[in-house]
Each structure stands twice: as structure tokens, then as C-alpha cells.
Amino acid sequence: MFEHRRQVAFHEVDAAGIVFFPWFHVYLHEAMDAFFGGLEGGYARLINERRVGLPAVRLVSDFRAPLRYGDTVAVRVEATRVGERSLSLRYAFFRDGGGEVAAFEQVVVATDLARMCSVPLPEDVRSVALAHLA
Amino acid sequence: MFEHRRQVAFHEVDAAGIVFFPWFHVYLHEAMDAFFGGLEGGYARLINERRVGLPAVRLVSDFRAPLRYGDTVAVRVEATRVGERSLSLRYAFFRDGGGEVAAFEQVVVATDLARMCSVPLPEDVRSVALAHLA
Amino acid sequence: MFEHRRQVAFHEVDAAGIVFFPWFHVYLHEAMDAFFGGLEGGYARLINERRVGLPAVRLVSDFRAPLRYGDTVAVRVEATRVGERSLSLRYAFFRDGGGEVAAFEQVVVATDLARMCSVPLPEDVRSVALAHLA
Amino acid sequence: MFEHRRQVAFHEVDAAGIVFFPWFHVYLHEAMDAFFGGLEGGYARLINERRVGLPAVRLVSDFRAPLRYGDTVAVRVEATRVGERSLSLRYAFFRDGGGEVAAFEQVVVATDLARMCSVPLPEDVRSVALAHLA
After folding, report:
1. A68 touching chain D per CB within 8 A
2. D77 within 8 A of D31, measured Cβ to Cβ
3. Which of A58, A116, D1, D70 is the most buried (most CB within 10 A)?
4. Which tops the pLDDT comparison, B117 or C98?
5. Tell me, what's the pLDDT at A93?
């Protein structure tokens, strides 16, 4: 189980006084970036130099409780399926000293960013996912 | 069928050169805001003065094609269920001069923002949804 | 005098209940984008295809009053200097039915985005600026 | 000298391939938040419970070099003036293994967020600033 921690920032709160839900998806993406941090050069090199990305094609989001400025959230990431060209990832968000606040099921597809078409999962990406298979 | 149009902004593109997926959710929320634009004082007054919000509790997102800076997207919104305290909304995104790029199914719950608990849907909110029931 | 109008969005408000100041800069950039809307293909084609950008090298920001969700802001843009490789632009923000809420002085430099070095201002960019010279 | 470190995130890059300048201001604000981290309950409690904020009234920004996804930036913060109701703060941004990429001079005013009017700087806020006076 991989865990990424993130503090809610001042500006991530909306007019309702709670974290605007797309920021949960930003936290999710940051957690995915950290999840692949063990790749040589990290996720940044995968994107910037190898020009392979992992865009989401499907995302199921369950929001169970609000987050507020000052909260810290722990995002737990695991792979639930490792395919030839796609991965399924599950994210569970916990508030410090509290329960689960949100859960996400995501399918991402390995994509050649120059031609914008699917490609086989790079071996090192696949290995990270397999190392965290549920 | 309600339609909201939105241009992709310069900064909504990410390191992969395409719109970062949480921005789709921002567009979705802007479309929901416009969908309820006929309320007296709009969605802003619902939030700021009446202190009732419609936070999402569930959101299923299907991303079918990328968006890029310079694209204009049409977001079509309709209600698929109008309950006592919750609504289901469906959003379909179309790129100008192109096909469907994304689709979303969202469940929102009428929420008292001061006490952060569910409340019956206000009558005027309910009416807007019923007027656009699929 | 060029004017761009923008509604404050739900999520642009922060934990203090007012628009987070970097969103003023996003509005400014959207106004600059619209200011150059008369270029063939707009600012988007300048960036995406001609690969010339206008990054800011200096920006002086004066914030005079807060903006809130529900406000509409009018951004007035004019050029105050048109150089060989750089432009100075002035932005004044007015709240609907109210006074000036912010003012900005910006210097941007024409930049080859592939080599990330300054270049002469493209003729059509220069013309737009000259047409709106204070 | 107070230092705050921040990695550039995937989504902070724009259609020009470099960090969109308002994100520099987000980093700046995060650095200010961390600068006041020693307050009891941090900057979050100042905002959420004590309802005192430090909105910027003036900000002079100099952008010297671009940042890219994958970069880490060190933000050095110091106070340059501590007044009765306002503070001047200076921020210098350095890229890891590189030179200064941006510098900012900011004036913030202690503000009662309920009445949205200036108030004397709280003593503990003042102390943090004095401890980091240039």
C-alpha cells in the first residue's frame, strides 16, 4: 500500500467553505505522480522526455465527507488490475485523525503523447503497478 | 436540454499538452451553476445567502477524447432523477465541430452549509431540475 | 479601450471568503487572450502553431477591494508602450455597479517557445497593441 | 531567512509548456502560509477561527526564468517592513541547482474577515515577521 500525504491549501476551499471537489482529483493525480516516483526521473521524465502519459479514461468518485483548509489528507493508492495497455488504480482518502473521506476507482491508458494513441504499458510502469497490486 | 458553452483556457492544459482532467470537472460545475441560473439571484445567492449547496456525493466520469487550448466545448445538462434530498444530473461534453469528448453522471445532495447536513431540495431547485428531466 | 467581462466562479473564492488573488491574474491573462482575439486563429494559434508566447517578465499589482462569488468584473486593457520585443499593458478591473477593484501594469516579452528566447514582436501582435495604445 | 520548498506539479504547466505565472503566486502564498506555521494552529487557525487574514494590497512580481514540470523551487521569505497594520514581505524563488527564477515584493494588511476592514497586526503575527526581518 502506497501512501501520499497532502495538506489542504488556503485556496482549495470554495464559496461553500469546503474543498471544491475537483481539487480531490488534483490530490489524486499528485498521489499517482508520487506512486510512480520510483521510475528513473519520476513521472516527470515519463511525460517530458519519454512522452508517454497515463490519461484517465474512466473515474468513479465517491465523496463521503468534506475537507477543510487546515486538514491533512492521506491518500492510499493501490493497483487493482494491470493490463497490457491500461491500469486500474484505487485511491482511498483519509483525513488525519478521522475516517475515510473519499474513494476513487480510476482507469488510465498508456498513451503516446506525440501521436495521442494507446501503447503497451512501459515495463517499469507495469512493475510499479504490480508491486502495489491489491 | 440545457447547454453551456466554454472555451478551453491557456492555463488549463497540462504537461502532456491536453486539458488536465479535473478542469473537465470545473467546466461541469460551471455548467451546473449556469443550469441553475434561473433561480432568483442564481446559484450564487443559493450559496452565499440561502446557504444551501449541492455538493457531489458520487461522480462517474468517462473521458473519450482530449481537449486542447483553443477548443470550445458545449456541455449539455439534464436531470435523470429528482429525489427528495438529492438529484442525479448527466453532462455530455461535445467539442465544437466534433463528437462527444466526455460524459458524467453526478449525484448531488441538498446540504445546509452551516450545519453541513442534508436538507430537502428547495422547491425552486427542484423545479429547475424537473424542467430538464430526461 | 478594450473590455473583457468575467464572472467570478464558485471555486475562485478562498478560505477567507473572497477571490484568491492569483485568480485576478488568471482573469488578467484571459483578458490578454481576448485582447489578442483579432489575430488570425487568435492567441491560441499564436501559442499552439506559431509557437510564440508573451510571458510576463514584470507585473505590478494593486488590489483595492475584494471580489466575491456572484460578482461580475469588467477588465479594461490598453497598451502603454509598444517596443521592439516587448509590450507594456495596463489592466483596470471594475466590479459591476461599483468602482475599481484592482489595477495591473504588465510587461510581456515576445518569446520563441521552442528556443525560449526573445524575438521581435510579430507584426500582427504589434498592430493590435498599437490600436489600443493609451 | 525562512525557506519553503515546492515541486512544480504536472498541471501547473500551461499551453506554452512552462509554469503559468499565477502559479508562482500560489507558491508565494503557500510559502507565506508556511512562514506563519509557528502560530498556534498555524495560518489556518488565524483564518478559520480567529477570522483575521493578510490579503495582499500590492505585489510587485519579477519573473526571470521559466519553471517546468519536474523542477523543485525553493522560496526564501523575509520581512522587509513591519508596520502597525501592514507588513512588507520579500520572496526570492530559486530553482534547485540553478539561479533565481523570480522575486516578489508584497504588502499585506491585517484584515478582520467578518467586517472586511483593517485591524492592528496580531502580536504573534508581528513576532513571526520581526523574527525574519531583513
Report:
1. yes
2. yes
3. D70
4. B117
5. 98
ipTM of predicted complex: 0.96
Cβ neighbours of residue A97 closer than 8 Å, sequence gap 6 or more: none
**For range A22-50, the mean pLDDT:** 97
Q: Using DSSP bridges, classify how beta strands D56-63 and C56-63 pair: parallel, antiparallel or unpaired.
A: antiparallel
> Does C9 contact B70 at a Cβ distance shorter than 8 Å?
no
Residue range A2-131 in CATH 3.70.10.10: no
Q: pLDDT by residue (tens digit) across C19-38?
A: 999 999 999 999 999 999 99
Size of interface B-C (CB pairs under 8 A): 42
> What is the structure's pLDDT at A107?
98
C116 touches chain A (CB under 8 A): no
Handedness of CA C108, D21, D3, D37 (dihedral sign): positive
- Min distance B75 CA to chain C CA atoms (Å): 17
SS3 sequence, chain A? CEEEEEECCHHHECCCCCECHHHHHHHHHHHHHHHCCCCCCHHHHHHHCCCEECCEEEEEEEECCCCCCCCEEEEEEEEEEECCCEEEEEEEEEECCCCEEEEEEEEEECEECCCCEECCCCHHHHHHHHHCEC
Residue C105, pLDDT > 90, answer yes
Residue D55 has pLDDT above 90, yes or no: yes
Whole-angstrom distance, CA of residue D83 vs CA of residue D87: 6
Domain boundaries, chain D: 2-131
Whether residue C101 contacts residue C84, with contact meaning beta carbons closer than 8 Å, is answered with: no
Per-window interface: B 1-60 vs A, CB < 8 A = 15-18, 20-23, 25-26, 29, 44, 47-48, 53, 55-60
